[in-house]
Specification:
2 domains; 12 helices; Hypothetical protein af1432; mainly alpha; two-stranded parallel ribbon; 44% helix
């Protein structure tokens, strides 16, 4: 299946492939096991002086600022469902008087789903934000994934009814999630991660759209925004942020 980007016709954009058709080869994580495997050889056969593989800004996406902030990723890269899901989760926690640690973990718990990868999203999300938040926030983000599958009646948490629809009523979580959930129950920050699961709701039609200003203070106090911009500060996860800036790069 051929995948390609539109020919560039925006001279105002500054990029090294100006005026050429730019072809997109989706990453394997996006098509393995589906009917959408691209014909890589056919794409490569189309290369010529006026047709190249995508590198740099894709004009189909909003251009990111030179020094991107967390808010920029929410507004310019994340899908609408993930953006709303995260801000609603965080606002609910804030409105119910949860600590800023819990609110921040709620805001970030599914962040890798926004524009990076969904599989093992709690682990990816924790790694993505670890250089910029407290250890407790990153721990809660990671472990909310495993804990989502296991009820805790004492905490008021039941297995999500939506999971029966998503995965089928006969789904059994894999062993590594059961192992990590059990370890999390004995951890000093268990209640923080469990709180994330309590506000991790999928259906929120009854909740008004959240204004970023309502969360801005929490973010400012709990997220270490690098002066160079996310993706350009040399952190161990800078490459992950750059991947979200340029998700269609060939290499």
């Amino acid at each position: 299946m051929e995948q390609h980007a539109a020919t560039m016709h925006e001279p105002a954009r500054d990029h090294p492939q100006q005026g050429r058709e730019r072809l997109i080869l989706p990453p394997p994580a996006g098509w393995l096991g589906t009917d959408n495997e691209p014909d890589e050889m056919a794409l490569l056969a189309r290369l010529n002086p006026k047709t190249v593989m995508m590198m740099g800004d894709n004009p189909a996406l909003p251009k990111m600022p030179e020094r991107p902030t967390l808010r920029d990723f929410f507004e310019l890269r994340f899908g609408a469902v993930t953006q709303r899901h995260l801000t609603v989760s965080a606002k609910r926690a804030l409105d119910e008087g949860q600590s800023e640690t819990v609110v921040m973990a709620c805001l970030l718990h599914d962040i890798s789903n926004g524009a990076l990868i969904r599989c093992d999203h709690g682990y990816w999300s924790a790694q993505l934000v670890a250089p910029y938040v407290s250890e407790e926030v990153a721990w809660a983000v990671q472990h909310h994934q495993a804990l989502r599958y296991f009820p805790d009646p004492d905490a008021g948490y039941a297995y999500p009814a939506s999971y029966d629809m998503f995965f089928g009523p006969d789904f059994v979580p894999p062993a590594y999630l059961a192992r990590d959930a059990e370890a999390a129950r004995a951890h000093k920050w268990y209640k923080t991660a469990r709180a994330v699961t309590l506000y991790d709701t999928y259906f929120f039609d009854d909740f008004p759209e959240v204004d970023w200003a309502d969360l801005a203070g929490v973010v400012e106090r709990n997220f270490r925004q690098p002066a160079e911009g996310l993706g350009f500060d040399g952190s161990p996860t800078a490459h992950m942020w750059r991947t979200m800036i340029w998700p269609n790069n060939f290499l």
